[in-house]
Amino acid sequence: MTAQNATAPTPPTLRPYQVQLIKDLYNKLGEGYKRVAVIAGTGAGKTVIAGQICAHAEARGCRLLFLVHLDVLVGQTYDKMRAFGLHCGFIKAGWKEDPTAPIQIASVQTMTKRHWWKKWHADVVLFDEAHTTVFSQVGQQVLYKTHPNAVHLALTATPYRLGKSQLGDHMETLVASPVPSVLQKMGYLAPMKYYGLSAEHQIDLSGVGTVAGDYDERALKNACDRPELVERIVEEWLRLVPDKRTIAFCVDVEHARHVADAFNQANVPAATVDGETPIKDRQKLYADLRDGHILVLTSCNVISIGFDEPSVEVGLLLRPTSVAGAAPPADWARHANCAAYGQAARHDSRPGGQFGAAGLSRRHPVLSPAYKRRPRRHRHRQRPDKAVPRLRADCADFFDDLPRLQARMARRKPGMSG
Question: What does pTM read for this prediction?
């Protein structure tokens, strides 16, 4: 790899609401909270926000551990860190390790096979895609065993999770960016137009059961991956949004391939990306979409995470989610994350589009950040004025107080959790 910081980069300019979100975060830390959920929807600029926090930390001599849950996200994260001129090391197979670097970008997949990070002192731990990383085995180790006295920041666009365990079980409070509707009014997200198939052409879910609160994938595939339905989707796409760059969210890989085949048969250039697609091939597909060599890119659980291509104009939501009362969080999360790409894609006055046969807009009408707080077991109820020194909350000055805070936490009696 080339030497870092060979030329001084120009850091990204933060939007006003991003600046405010970071200030809100520092105010919470100044009140004595050490575990904070940072919620910013798709398109709100989570990686830029994280980069600015990392830049503040490095400038004040702090060390930061940045956890990502997929190997593919390491490079994307590093690109943003490099834009801020930050010195990074990596815990990722195939990337150069540098334990002396003040910022470590770590894949939880690789961390299970490495051990030196357990004794690597971190003042701050930042969990990217926190609804996943916090709940991983490595994430729980970092929170409660290896780095319990660090400041823990949980960054996510979709805080709701399937099942009982939620971010509020591990974080103490939250800060959030404006919701998508407000970002639209501010001009940072494109206005949206929603299209759906008529009732008689909607997916018939009457015979689809649920597993762990969401639709059984095998039965769902049989309901969604029908030639007549796929053909109808292509026909409506040609009628409503022809020649617009489109990403499609499908049930499984075979469904994604069938949708791409149908578009190709209609002389609309299309391709499929899935979890087995090599990174270089994915990047080429994304570039082909951006350059107009393909107009439709179909996927299953790939584009929905870590995808950032501003040229996309339309999202095809072809994978229904359950409305089972026991598990609305996961449904909301998947719908919100997919639907937001059409908004985030356009930064001009042209509207983005959402089109689907899954009935998601009808069953999930609300797209707004949410957070579920549960009291932690055996939680030590702190008095901020005594149990934890108050931190200065002006901009990033709280980092200057971290050594004093950690020293106080280390002197606590056994059994007191922070």
Answer: 0.73
- Among the listed residues 362, 287, 301, the one whose alpha carbon sits nearest the alpha carbon of residue 334: 301
Confidence class of residue 411 from pLDDT cuts 50, 70 and 90? Answer: very low
* Domains along the sequence of the chain with CATH: 16-177+371-410 (3.40.50.300), 185-363 (3.40.50.300)
pLDDT per position as a tens digit, 290-311:
999 999 999 987 776 656 677 8
State phi, psi for 45 to the nearest 5 degrees: 90, 50
Residue 362 to residue 359: CA distance in whole angstroms: 5
Q: In this structure, what token pair is assigned to residue 399?
A: 């980092």
Q: Contact at 8 Å (CB) between 229 and 201? A: yes
User: Using only C-alpha atoms, what is the Rg of the chain?
Assistant: 22
Burial readout 392-407 (b: 16 or more C-beta within 10 A, e: otherwise): ebeebebbebbeebbe
| Phi-psi group of 334: left, alpha or beta (phi > 0 → left; psi -120 to 50 → alpha; rest → beta) | alpha
pLDDT at site 125: 97
53-56: long-range contacts, CB 8 A cutoff, minimum separation 24: 53/22, 53/25, 53/124, 53/126, 53/153, 54/81, 54/84, 54/86, 54/103, 54/126, 55/11, 55/84, 55/85, 55/86, 56/22, 56/395, 56/396, 56/399
Provide the CB-side half-sphere exposure for 7 (13 A, CA): 2
Q: If DSSP codes are grouped into helix, strand and coil, which group holds residue 352?
A: strand
Contact 122, 150 (CB under 8 A): yes
Q: How far apart are CA 393 and CA 29, in angstroms?
A: 7
Q: Which two tokens stand for residue 134?
A: 């916090």
Whole-angstrom Cα distance, residue 358 to residue 339? 12
- Cα–Cα separations (whole angstroms), residue 87 to 51, 79, 143: 12, 12, 24
Which DSSP state fits 142? I
Distance CA 258, CA 226 (A): 9
Which residues have a Cβ under 8 Å from the Cβ of 240 and sit 6 or more positions away? 195, 353, 355
* Contacts made by residues 277-282, CB under 8 angstroms, sequence distance 24+: 277/302, 279/72, 279/75, 282/72
Residue carrying structure tokens 């499984």: 252
CB atoms within 10 A of CB 96: 9
CA distance linking residue 262 with residue 351, whole number of Å? 26
